[in-house]
Amino acid sequence: MSPPPLTERQLLLSQILKAIRRRRGLRSSEVARSIGMALRSYQHFESARGREDGPTIHAFAEAVDADGYAILLALDMKSADFAVDCLDNKFTSVMVLAVRRFRKKSGRDLARLDPRSVIGAFERAFGELTKKLGEDDAYVEEWMTDPALGGDLHDPDDEPEDR
Questions:
Q1: 80, 57 in Cβ contact below 8 A?
Q2: Given this model, what pLDDT does residue 22 score?
Q3: Comparing C-alpha atoms, which of 91, 48, 47 is closest to residue 68?
Q4: Is the Cβ–Cβ distance between 71 and 61 less than 8 Å?
Q5: Which of 31, 130, 17, 7 is CA-nearest to residue 83?
């Protein structure tokens, strides 16, 4: 009897785990050893055949230097790219840490916040991050084209192609 087909969520988890492992240039055996798991068990985990297991996902993330919270959130967002995009900056782990700190400072007062204030705070924070991305892009573009810094104002992509 063949195993039941994977659900959409299981397929996505498998895709995320494989993409991250490959991006890190690791073999399954290396990750399995790092997690302390038998290779066959790791392969079962990476193929998402078992139960979705938060602690194992976090152990995987630690072993491959990824963001375990981003993997879990990517499943809910239905976006493998999100998990991969958070590999190096640990975006979601940082966000969870910030929420934990806020909770520690605010305590039970957290319950008094109205949704409009929460939405506004997140919109402002993410707006600032979006602005930062634009500033970084502008800086890199300026640096790359500054002759004083050795940049070349000539862009080969602007050349007409030979026929």
A1: no
A2: 96
A3: 91
A4: yes
A5: 17
With contact defined as beta carbons under 8 Å apart, do 37 and 29 qualify?
Answer: no
Closest CA to 86 of 55, 56, 65: 65
C-alpha to C-alpha distance for 100 and 109, rounded to whole angstroms: 14
Chain segment 3-23, per-residue pLDDT in tens: 778 899 999 999 999 999 999
Q: How far out from the chain centre does Cα 67 lie?
A: 6
Half-sphere exposure of residue 41, counting CA atoms within 13 Å on the CB side? 10
The whole-number average pLDDT for the span 51-77 is 95
Per-residue tokens: 57:
């996902």
Distance CA 82, CA 131 (A): 19
Angstrom CA distances, 28 to 32, 40, 53, 87, 100, stand at 6, 9, 18, 18, 33
Q: How many whole angstroms separate alpha carbon 60 and alpha carbon 17? A: 8
Q: How far apart are CA 45 and CA 10, in angstroms?
A: 10
- In whole angstroms, give the CA distance from residue 77 to residue 69: 12
Which long-range contacts link 100-104 to residues 24+ away (Cβ below 8 Å)?
Answer: none
